Amino acid sequence: MFILSVSCSAGQYREDSSNTCLDCSVNKISTDGADNCKACGDGEEANEDHTACVVCLAGEYSSADMTDCAACADNTYSEEAGASSCTNCGAGTVSNSGNTGCDECPAGQYRSSDIGSCEDCGVNEMSAEPAADICTACEDG
Fold first, then answer.
1. pLDDT at position 114, please?
2. C-alpha to C-alpha distance for 108 and 131, rounded to whole angstroms
3. Residue 9: which of 27, 29, 26 has the closest Cα?
4. Which residues contact 106 (CB under 8 A, 6 or more apart)?
5. CA torsion 131→135→140→141, rounded to 10°?
6. Apex CA 69: angle with CA 30 and CA 45, to 5°?
7. CB-CB neighbours of 139 under 10 Å
8. pLDDT tens digits for 54-111?
9. Is 112 in a helix, a strand, or coil?
10. Which three-class secondary structure state does DSSP give residue 2?
11. Which residue in 120, 126, 132, 141 has its CB near the most CB atoms, within 10 A?
12. How far apart are CA 53 and CA 23, in angstroms?
């Protein structure tokens, strides 16, 4: 007995043992008639119907162990689309609202690498320049 092999639509693959079409799993895609699905690469995620990989936007990232693009965490950024990781903002800077770069803390504030946002200098302390990672004591007088 001869069984015709089923041809699957894009976003699906043919499962050999049952000769049926199954949807591609998370972050995988296929074209019409595919026997398997292929994984999207770093810096990409599968579109909703699993027919194409789309590049993560600036401010997002994706790596092989992830299911889709994710926003960079606070004080990290990715300036270009298609990032596989985010870069840490240095001391004295914080990530901008879209996590696409870092902004300097203004004069009178600081950020060391172990705090989350720019903080005001304490009483009798100052930071005369932007992007300070510490405040210094004011001189007497």
1. 82
2. 10
3. 29
4. 118, 130
5. 40
6. 10
7. 7
8. 999 999 999 988 989 999 999 999 999 999 999 999 999 999 999 999 999 999 999 9
9. coil
10. coil
11. 132
12. 15
Q: Give residue 42's Cα distance to chain centre.
A: 10
**Residue 108 to residue 41: CA distance in whole angstroms:** 44
Look at residues 9, 18, 84 and name the one whose alpha carbon lies nearest to residue 50: 9
Average per-residue pLDDT for the chain: 93
**Residue whose pair of structure tokens reads 């994706």 in the numeric block:** 62
Sequence letter at residue 58: A
Across 16-120, the runs of DSSP E, i.e. the strands, are: 20-23, 28-29, 38-39, 44-46, 53-55, 60-61, 70-71, 76-77, 87-88, 93-95, 102-104, 109-110, 119-120
